[in-house]
């Protein structure tokens, strides 16, 4: 039996991924259960509890969860879970401790978990001030200071996707998330493009997609530049599926970010692609259990 084994659960809008994670960063037994289409919290727990019980039988003593939304220090989800409305106002760790009082349970925002995972085992290793940006359906972010996530006074830091907010229909991630760019590309080309098709058109020098890519990275470069001026990070990690196209994305982000910075700030923050892909949140959610003095 593995000593100090953890079960990690990354709750998303369509499914919850889970796996076992060891203190030395080994991940095994990866699987998932659906979260979309569930009618209420009871249905969610009907999927969750068998996973918990099996993990306990396998020797897991910790459960780390990552979840969208605003998570208080006591584990309460205050909101920000529009795709999973049955989780609003719910304290999953409290429920699981009632189910098994000996179980150590923690929960954190999914963006924070991904950033901690990259800090622990990925592209953020060795960073003192780490800014992580995730490009996908929305635009998420998290700040890690000396290995600790900065959560803000109201546990709502990292909502960079709401930058340039002017109304509920006009803010950064509406048009400049990966989803927003693909929607705009599909409208301009008259074809339904996914990420692979968009990148292939970029590689084929399609003028429409090249212009969109330039607009995208210029806008993101402005956001990164503003955050670099405020936070002075030593590294910026870019995550999300698009980060796999780092040969295209990273040089353009570097160019536009540095162009929009005063000379003395240019090149100070290294901009790198994420290394752990979709497993970053699984690693990050359980990292606190492997820190000396962790109080679960």
From TrEMBL:
InterPro entries: ATPase_NBD (IPR043129), ROK (IPR000600). Gene3D superfamilies: 3.30.420.40. Signal peptide: none annotated. Belongs to the ROK (NagC/XylR) family. PANTHER family: BETA-GLUCOSIDE KINASE, ROK (REPRESSOR, ORF, KINASE) FAMILY. This is ROK family protein. It comes from Eisenbergiella porci. The lineage of its organism: Bacteria, Bacillati, Bacillota, Clostridia, Lachnospirales.
């Amino acid at each position: 039996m593995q000593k100090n084994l953890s079960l990690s659960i990354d709750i998303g809008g369509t499914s919850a991924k889970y796996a076992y994670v060891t203190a030395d960063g080994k991940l095994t037994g990866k699987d998932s259960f659906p979260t979309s289409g569930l009618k209420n919290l009871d249905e969610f727990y009907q999927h969750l509890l068998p996973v918990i019980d099996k993990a306990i039988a396998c020797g897991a003593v910790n459960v780390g969860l990552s979840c969208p939304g605003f998570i208080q220090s006591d584990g309460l989800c205050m909101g920000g879970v529009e795709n999973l409305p049955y989780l609003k106002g719910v304290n999953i760790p409290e429920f699981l401790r009632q189910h098994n009082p000996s179980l150590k349970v923690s929960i954190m925002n999914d963006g924070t978990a991904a950033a901690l995972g990259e800090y622990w085992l990925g592209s953020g290793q060795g960073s003192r001030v780490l800014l992580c940006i995730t490009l996908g359906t929305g635009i998420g972010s998290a700040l890690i200071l000396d290995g600790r996530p900065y959560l803000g006074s109201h546990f709502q830091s990292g909502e960079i996707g709401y930058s340039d907010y002017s109304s509920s229909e006009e803010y950064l991630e509406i048009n400049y998330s990966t989803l927003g760019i693909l929607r705009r590309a599909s409208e301009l080309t008259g074809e339904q493009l996914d990420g692979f098709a968009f990148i292939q058109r970029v590689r084929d020098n399609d003028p429409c997609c090249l212009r969109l890519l330039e607009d995208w990275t210029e806008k993101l470069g402005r956001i990164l530049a503003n955050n670099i001026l405020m936070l002075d990070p030593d590294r910026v990690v870019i995550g999300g599926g698009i980060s796999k196209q780092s040969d295209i994305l990273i040089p353009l982000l570097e160019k536009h970010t540095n162009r929009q910075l005063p000379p003395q700030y240019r090149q100070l923050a290294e901009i790198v692609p994420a290394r752990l892909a979709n497993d970053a949140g699984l690693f990050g959610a359980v990292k606190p259990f492997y820190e000396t003095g962790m109080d679960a």
